[in-house]
Specification:
32% of the residues lie in helices and 27% in strands. By secondary structure, it is an alpha+beta fold. The strands form 2 sheets. Strands 1-2-3-4-5 form a 5-stranded antiparallel sheet, with helices on both faces. It is globular and about 35 Å long. The chain starts with a strand and ends in a 6-residue tail after the last strand.
């Protein structure tokens, strides 16, 4: 089982008891504002999403980690790697992403988890390049992206929702682990 410990976080595979807290995160309009069409997701959607994330682990050897706070054991959300099939123009690519509950914002957890995920991509999975895709205007995500040392590569639009997207990239041979 793949796990990564950081000073404050445990990045791990998904457990059944993660469903309810992740569904709460996915139903929060503040969290979902910058995701797809901005609508919240229910428990059924969360179950399907976690099943897909776990399948990607099996198929690709990487996926989205559940992010747990070491101090409390609370599920804070996710971070990890995935193939961004929704945006064919960037393929083949592996993207880093994250989604944390709003009560966990502004505490550096996203940056801490994402940094550990990039180390995992480079050291454990041998990837040489990772991208990040975010909606233009999502300044909090762009701040995390810049802290990771990623640089803008292109602007495009979401193929379904039409929202403006920015793609950042990092060559992992230059990543400062």
């Amino acid at each position: 089982m793949t796990e990564i410990r950081t000073p404050r976080l445990l990045l791990r595979r998904w457990h059944d008891d993660d469903l309810a807290p992740m569904a709460d995160i996915n139903s929060d309009p503040r969290v979902m504002r910058w995701v797809d069409d901005g609508s919240g997701r229910d428990l059924d959607h969360t179950v399907e999403a976690i099943e897909r994330w776990e399948e990607e682990w099996d198929d690709e050897g990487f996926g989205l980690f559940a992010v747990e706070l070491l101090a409390s054991g609370e599920l804070a959300g996710f971070t990890g790697l995935s193939v961004p099939e929704f945006l064919p123009e960037v393929l083949p690519a592996v993207a880093i992403s994250w989604r944390l509950g709003s009560q966990f914002w502004g505490q550096g957890y996203a940056s801490e988890a994402a940094h550990a995920t990039l180390e995992f991509a480079l050291q454990d999975r041998g990837l040489d390049r990772v991208i990040s895709i975010h909606r233009v205007g999502d300044d909090a995500s762009e701040n995390v992206i810049r802290k990771l040392g990623m640089v803008p590569e292109r602007e495009t639009a979401h193929p379904v929702y039409g929202s403006p997207l920015r793609v950042h990239t990092i060559d992992l041979t230059e990543f400062q682990a």
